[in-house]
């Protein structure tokens, strides 16, 4: 693997993704991992990510010089670049000025390993305070900006490279090429990693782990759990039973879709559990988002345990149900604070929300994949497009789209509004242009309206259409006004107690995609 050392910025994930787009397998490791441990993983190359700190700040994460002396190719970006510069004897000035956003990069070595074949002038994305004024000995300076004299340096002999900008973000127009140049030319790695390999590897590993035992899998109707289930089914066939928990937080028609489409596509054994009462009771009066997530996660597991007991009771003697399959993705793992120094932003119900007394061993075959990779795996497994290209829907469902506490009435309201929005988006042919469009009920907010001749005092519905590549970052979708108008008119006309529809025009960051 190529290791991406995470210096505390969410950029590390994006870098890992870009490396995989270059068909090279990558993994993120925290910057606190000792260099010996990193090297023990036999990495093909190491990338040092950006980070929020100044290398001169007290307690700023650093890296042992040994990392640069092991003969492993290293590419430093932004903060990683400055660390490299200081560790190897270059000069980084604490300038006090900042360079932020789109910047023109002047390439001074047209045939360099990193930049050869890219334009002499290119747009890059910068975000830094300190600036490198002298490269370490033995390095060639290959680019600069109007502000920074040393914006890139390279040492082909030692296979050490660095750039001040962020090649991983879209705004760096030749970033992907620069990254690939490092991987292929600088580190000599062959681009051979594919999702096909993932399936083979996972199928073999799951077979071996499960043996003659049985597994159950929670199915939500979403892409992740569907692909995880299909993958495990390929490995162990009828030893898998899927459990679909109807927690009452699903959207309109969702249960029927799982029962029909998914079973038809995979032939999987499915058990449907109606747990609506139970979830509503556990969530009664709870309005804190983290609380909701924890409760939903906990109840999920409890319901599985019950299903497990039932499946055991029905199974032949000597067939233990030991495993629980979950569609946990790589971003879930990283965002829940697992495996790196990044902040805990939300507890995803299938990671941070797990109770401590969990009685299953987990199988998480998608744990190392990003969403688009999961879709590719699903496609390769032969799942239908309607499932593979479904817009994401969070495990806690409509429960985290009601701001305020959850009641059956509020759920019904939101379900109606959501169904209208989805219907109109589909009718307008916008499904694939929009990453997802959460519809949120502000149950704790009321506003005055007028309908017919009367005053109303109802709740607002928020439309949150976003465009994204991987849900790590997102922008609000500039969707046609006439479609918005239609959704708004229909929701206020058809959904009782809703007298206002508002559009969320916040990107991520600073907003997250969901409201809770
Ligand atoms: P945020 O709101 O963090 O969401 O920007 C990023 C993506 O993750 C989905 N999401 C979840 N998915 N369990 C899930 O399976 C969860 O607890 C959860 N929370 C958010 C969200 O819909 C978006 O696609």
From TrEMBL:
The keyword Nucleotide-binding applies. Residues 193-390 form the GMPS ATP-PPase domain. Transmembrane segments: none annotated. InterPro entries: Class_I_gatase-like, GATASE, GMP_synth_C, GMP_synth_GATase, GMP_synthase, GMPS_ATP_PPase_dom, NAD/GMP_synthase, Rossmann-like_a/b/a_fold. ATP binds at residues 220-226. The active site is at 78 (nucleophile), 166, 168. It catalyses: XMP + L-glutamine + ATP + H2O = GMP + L-glutamate + AMP + diphosphate + 2 H(+). Keywords: ATP-binding, Glutamine amidotransferase, GMP biosynthesis, Ligase, Nucleotide-binding, Purine biosynthesis. It comes from the Bacteria. Its EC number is 6.3.5.2. Pfam families: GATase, GMP_synt_C, NAD_synthase. Pathway: Purine metabolism; GMP biosynthesis; GMP from XMP (L-Gln route): step 1/1. Homodimer. Catalyzes the synthesis of GMP from XMP. This is GMP synthase [glutamine-hydrolyzing].
